[in-house]
Amino acid sequence: MPRNALDVLVGGQGSSRTSKALKTIGSYWLYATTLYDYLRRVMPFNAPQSLTPDEIYALVAWLLQQNGIVTEDTVLDARSLPRIEMPNRNGFTPDPRPDVP
User: Fold this and answer.
1) pLDDT in tens, 28-70
2) Which pLDDT score, from 0 to 100, does residue 37 have?
3) What does the domain layout of the chain look like in residue ranges?
4) Exposed site from 49, 65, 88, 98, fewest CB < 10 Å?
5) SS3 per-residue string spanning 70-99
6) Are 10 and 66 in contact (CB under 8 A)?
7) Arithmetic mean of pLDDT, 17-35
8) Whole-angstrom Cα distance, residue 51 to residue 84?
9) What does CATH list as the number for 5-83?
10) What is the rounded distance in angstroms from the CA atom of residue 63 to the CA atom of residue 29?
C-alpha cells in the first residue's frame, strides 16, 4: 500500500514487464503530452480546468523531474513538451488486428 500520493505517481521504472507492474508516470505513460492534457482537464480537484497553461507546464515539469525524466532546471512549453522521451515510450506492442466488428 502506498504511503502517500507521490508514491503512486513516482517510481516503478522497469516494472511494466513484471508480474507486479507499478503503473506510474515514469513507468507506464508513453507521452508527456498525455500528462499535460490529463492535468489540464482534471486539476485542481476542487476546480477542474482552472489552472493556467504555465501552471500546468510547471506541474508536469515537477512530476517528470520527480520521476527522473527531466532535470530540475528543465523548462517546458508547447515546443519542448512533445520532445520529452518517456521511459516506456516503446513499452507497448501494437495490435495488428483490424479495428472492425
Assistant:
1) 889 999 999 999 999 999 999 999 999 999 999 999 999 999 9
2) 96
3) 5-83
4) 98
5) CCCCCCCCCCCHHHCCCCCCCCCCCCCCCC
6) yes
7) 84
8) 22
9) 1.10.760.10
10) 12
